[in-house]
Amino acid sequence: MSDAIKKVDVEFGEVEVHEKARSSIHGPIEIDEGYTPAQIRSVTRKVDRRLIPVLSLLYCISFIDRTNLSLARAANGQAMNKELDLLGGNNRYGLATLIFFVPYIIFEIPSQLGLRAFGARWWLGLACFFWGLVMMCFGFIQTWQALVGLRAVLGLFECALFPGATYLISCWYPRRQMATRTTFFYVLSVVVCGLSATLAYGISKLHGRGGYSGWRWIFIINGIMTMVIAGVGMIFIVDFPDRAKFLQSDEKELIETRIQRDRSDAEPDAMTLQKFWSYVCDGKLWIFAYIFCTSGTSTYALSYFLPRILLQMGFTGFKSVILVAPPYVWVPIPAMATAILADRYQQRALAISLNSLQVIIGTCMYSKLSSSHLAARYAGVFIAVGGSNANMPLAISWAQTAIRRQSKRGYTSAIVVAFGGISGIIAGVSFIEKEADQGYPTGIHITLAMTAASILCCLGLWVYFRLENRRADRDGKVLEGHPDFRYQT
Hints:
Layout: H1 37-84, H2 92-99, H3 101-106, H4 108-118, H5 120-137, H6 144-158, H7 161-170, H8 178-204, H9 214-236, H10 249-263, H11 273-280, H12 283-313, H13 318-322, H14 325-330, H15 332-344, H16 348-368, H17 374-401, H18 406-430, H19 441-475
Helix pairs in contact: 1-7, 1-8, 1-9, 1-12, 2-6, 2-18, 4-5, 4-18, 5-6, 5-7, 5-9, 7-18, 8-9, 8-15, 8-17, 12-17, 12-18, 12-19, 15-16, 15-17, 16-17, 16-19, 18-19
């Protein structure tokens, strides 16, 4: 490793620094001394091809598997309700929906420790295999209690992927490339997941084959698909830059040097109790987690309840399932547009606020307009789905640009995504089944209030970061343990 990448960490006692390392850690300007633009593009594209597609594939099947419950119920609901006795008590379907997120939240941070210890390939690949096995088991259950239990086990295994993938991406790219890469990884998954409604409807036509209902075939076939994809993941997932085997030594040095010049944390650091408590006490991470939670509430609500919302609008039968897909095909447009705004123009707070406004406008359109404005209400679904899904990768990538040290990156990914799990619980509880015919008013109002508050959070962070950068420039205040670090707003 070159002299340009020695670590600096005032907060935890490491203070040695080489002058060449003082560059884009100040903010948006990146100095790549010693490397030509052609070299940087070539290596970056090589990383892009190996890292992003396989992570997208795994997250795609993860998103499909966690939302298959709503698709199975929409496609073959009468048989599912009867065979599992889902209508025999108070909100049994809602319980099955939200129980997924309890282990998902609890095991986020331990999953990040395992990622570093065992490596991304095996940790993420095996997690995918085991939740695929669980998914297949859904097709053979006979009671609603078994449904709830398996949903909890599914959450235990799926908790490894999303925070692990975002942490892995943040370790490969400079800050000015994080939003676009994280968004591309997320959006590719969401688009394919949106099309899964059509796939689920087609699989449900196997109803009666082999003595199994259509909803059971949805889980069985998707479980088998997941285990196959897990095998692909265990072959192609790349590890952290310091362990990468697909790069030449000079290419690996280029990656590590760019990271070091950007934020001086290319080398991994061990998590200690002192570091852990300092991260817990970092207030800005909790604000980022809330912003992510807000976007997740709208995203999960639409994922789990959109077929029923479309039914309430007046789209019946086949239409209520097939019309789930088009809004997700729209997602890449607002998502990539705001990701470019965030990365290229360093307007992260503005990008998230614009998407939040889309969520508010779209939610009001599909929930508040009268039944005579059917086209406008469906257009509102597009706007709300686009805004909420666009904000998920933006929120976690902005959090990653505001910190240093790999141990803190792992913790941040875990705590922010854990709040995404909390958002799933909020969606499951607030979108009350008995209010379905009225358009879920409780859930809609909670979504609107949380989204409005997230815009205020973005404004608060924007002001705070600018003031902190000014104090660092004027008074020499050290940010994130590095004298040259500056927040990106």
